[in-house]
Each structure stands twice: as C-alpha cells, then as structure tokens.
Amino acid sequence: MPLLTISELKKAAREDSPQEAVVHAQIEKLIRKEAANGKPFHEVQFRDGSESMTLRAWSDTPAFEACSSLKASEFVEIEGIFSHSSAFGLDAKRWELNPLPEEAIDALLEGSAERRELLERCDRIITGAVESIADPRIKALCGQFLSQHGPRFRRAAAARGNHHARRGGLLEHTSRMMESALALCGVYPELNRDLIIAGVLFHDTGKLWETCPPERGFGITPELRGELLGHLSIGIELVNSIWRELPKDGWEQFTPSSEDVRLHILHLVASHHGQLEYGSPVLPKTPEAALLHFIDNIDARMEMFFTAYQANPSAGNSSLEWVRPLGVAPVNPLPAVTAPSETGLLSQDGEELLL
User: What is the pTM of this model?
Assistant: First the structure.
C-alpha cells in the first residue's frame, strides 16, 4: 500500500475511489460516542503536516479496540480502504490503527522531502531579507528575534483555520509576504525597505503563542498568553522586549532617531489588520503600514482560493463550495493560453504539444 499524507489521500480518493493506502498521523481528538441506535463508536480526528481528517471506528471493527487503548496526541499508522463521497467527504468502512514507531514519528514531524524543501526555501527568503537590512538597529532587532525564537517561528501555524493553518504555515505566509513586499519596494522606491522587512517579519509573531503546535505535534492549541492577549498585543510586547535587550552603543548617531524607529515598527504590528473592527487598535497611518496590511490580506486570500481549488479540482467552470472569509463560492481560474505552432500547440513555457 502507498504511504500518503492526509492531503494526498483525500486527493487520491477523490480521483480514484476506493483508495487503498497507509497514512501516518497524530491523533488530535478521540471521542467515544453512541449512535441513535445505541451502538458505540469512536470519532477520531487525525492531523499531519498537510491537514486533518476525521474517521469513525465502530464497535464491530478492529479500529474500535485500538482506539480504546489510545489517546489524543499519540502518533499512529492508519491502514485501510478509503472512499470519497460528495455528501460525507473522506470515509473508510474498515480500517486498522497501530502505534507508530519512534523513527517514523521523527520522519512524520520532519515532513516529506517536498515539504522540507519548501520550508527551507521560505527560511532562506526570510533570513536573506533580514541580512539585506541597511539600518543596523532594525537588522539587530530582526536577527535577535530569529536567534531567540527561530525554532518556534518555523513550526508555528499562521491561523487556526482559513489560511496556512498547519505546522510551518506561518513561515510560508511570512515568506510569501516578504517576496511580495520586496517586489513592491522596487515599484515604490519611496518606501522604507528596512521598515517593511521588519513589519513583515514581526506582524504575526504573536502567533508563536496563539497558533503554535508543540515541538512534537501538529495540533494548533493556543497557550494561555495567546488566549488572553491575542497576537497583536503579544507582537507589540515582543518587539519591545527584544528592543530593550539590544546593545545600543552608537545609536545616538543615527537619523532618524532610535525611538522613532521603534515606534514605527510597533505601528506596523498594531495596525496590520487594517480596520478597528478587525482587531487593530489603530488604523494604518504610514505607506509602509498600508502596504503591510494589503499584502497580508492578499496572501491570506490567495491561499484560501488555492485551498478551495485543491479540495475540488474536478469542478471545471462550476462554482465550488462557499468560502466564508472570501464571501464567495470560488470559480476555477482561466488556464494559461497555449499558442499554435506548425506541428501542434505551444504551451506558455514554449514546450511543444503535439496534436
């Protein structure tokens, strides 16, 4: 049987149901319930580095007994024949559950080779941007953050739902925003490039305590600090605490003043939601703050569109399911043009497609 991620399994089951497969995952929730006829079953939610899935283990199946001896947060191997229906999504009539060996747990937490390569690229984009900062004060602030909180930053999710809601999602979100921001700095040279890099890096750092999985896990469980303060307040506190720790020899020689630099970075964090009703205590009042808000919104929305397409790739030109944060039921985008040649068609990248 092929070893698939949950995302790969859902895609394979949609395209070719039923699908025989093995999945390695962590138990996120395990609840014992009773059906209307009194028949007991376990409802189990699994999560890996790609997404989550829910299966039901009935009392007359091998999985039911296994669930009785397992608990949430344990790592397991799920083996079975999976199917997909438009009414219930992914399901499995009979499936087996076994504890996952330690070496397989380590491999699962590291992710697939493709996933590791993606996150390494994201990390290079962010660290490269920080290294390019000209203002030594802003560079020191960003470097200190990556040094102190790098591992936590690299495993945090960007949200509990909606977009980038997965281990490493914040790194993906931040790197995409960084690429967009740097490109726009070339279009608008009037912008303070150093300030924007710091704003992109710090805007969601409060989520290290609001949507961060544990070192050995995938579940997005907020800490008390995240629940009580929220990520904007935590991000402001984080910038201030790191700023206080930095050596400041010679800073009085720089213009603009160090206090103005600190206040502008704090404004970026405080205003990045863009509207008071969305949680920002203040509206964006500088071009850098406005740009940060818009690229944050753009990347979140693009991710929600792409996720919707991935969930239903065979929809053609028909509308997909309603996506509440987008406020629409997305329609699949127009494919790239292909140009005719003497022997057939040329794709957008120039590759010949023979007829």
Answer: 0.86
